[in-house]
Write a structure and sequence with these properties.
With 199 residues, the chain is mainly alpha-helical. It folds into 2 domains: 123 residues, no CATH class; 73 residues, no CATH class. It is 68% helix and 3% strand. A two-stranded antiparallel sheet has the order 1-2. The protein starts with a strand and ends with a helix. The relative contact order is 0.10.
C-alpha cells in the first residue's frame, strides 16, 4: 500500500529515500529554471537542454543588440537579415519574446509537474511552504519590478510632457517678441533677471 498524505497516496515503486523532493524542484525552478535547473534535477534532460538553449538564444540576442556595428554585421552576413530584425530595438523585442515564452514554460512546470519521468510522485510534504515561496518570488522579482517600472515610465512620460509644454510656451514667447521687434533674451539675460529678482 502507498504512503498516504492527506487525500493523496504515493504509489511509488522506489523507496522513499530515492524520491525527488518537490520543494527542491521548486527552488531549482525559481533560481535556475531559465537554464533548466529544475528539469536537470528531475532527470527530464530533453526539457532541461531545450530551456538551456533558449536561455543561450535570448542572452545572445540581448548581447548582440548592444553591438554598435549592426549594419556592417548584416552586410557581412546578409542571410541573417532574413532571420533577425534589422534594428537593436527589434532584436531586444525578439529576445524578450523568447524570454517570456521560457519564463511561462518554467512557471507552468513549477505549478503542474508532480511526478518524475518514471511515473513516481515527488515528495511534497512541504507543499504549503513551497506555494508561499512561489508567490513571494513572483511578487518580489516580477510583480514589484513591474510596478516600479510602470511608475518610473509614468514619471518619465509626465516629465517629457511638461518639457514639451515648456518648449512650446518658450517658442510662442519668442514668436511674440519677434513680432513686436524686441530681442529674444539669452540664457545669460534670464539668469541676470532672476538674480536681480532675488536680490
Amino acid at each position: 500500500m502507498g504512503i498516504v498524505k492527506g487525500s493523496d497516496t504515493y504509489n511509488n515503486k522506489k523507496p522513499r529515500s530515492q524520491w525527488k523532493n518537490r520543494f527542491i524542484y521548486t527552488i531549482c525552478g525559481l533560481f535556475a529554471g531559465l537554464v533548466g535547473g529544475h528539469n536537470f534535477y528531475l532527470g527530464r534532460k530533453l526539457a532541461a537542454i531545450t530551456q538551456l538553449m533558449m536561455a543561450i538564444v535570448w542572452i545572445s540576442l540581448l548581447a548582440f543588440a548592444q553591438t554598435e556595428s549592426l549594419p556592417e554585421f548584416f552586410e557581412r552576413f546578409p542571410m541573417l537579415a532574413y532571420i533577425l530584425p534589422g534594428s537593436s530595438s527589434g532584436i531586444v523585442t525578439l529576445a524578450t519574446i523568447v524570454f517570456a515564452i521560457e519564463l511561462i514554460w518554467v512557471y507552468a512546470e513549477i505549478f503542474t509537474v508532480k511526478r518524475e519521468p518514471d511515473g513516481d510522485a515527488m515528495d511534497d510534504e512541504a507543499g504549503p511552504v513551497r506555494i508561499l515561496l512561489i508567490f513571494a518570488f513572483i511578487f518580489s522579482f516580477i510583480i514589484l519590478p513591474g510596478i516600479l517600472y510602470g511608475v518610473t515610465s509614468c514619471q518619465d512620460a509626465l516629465e517629457s510632457k511638461n518639457n514639451r509644454i515648456a518648449d512650446e510656451m518658450r517658442a510662442e514667447r519668442h514668436r511674440r517678441l519677434i513680432e513686436q521687434g524686441r530681442p529674444i533674451p539669452t540664457q545669460q539675460d534670464i539668469q541676470q533677471e532672476l538674480e536681480s529678482t532675488i536680490d
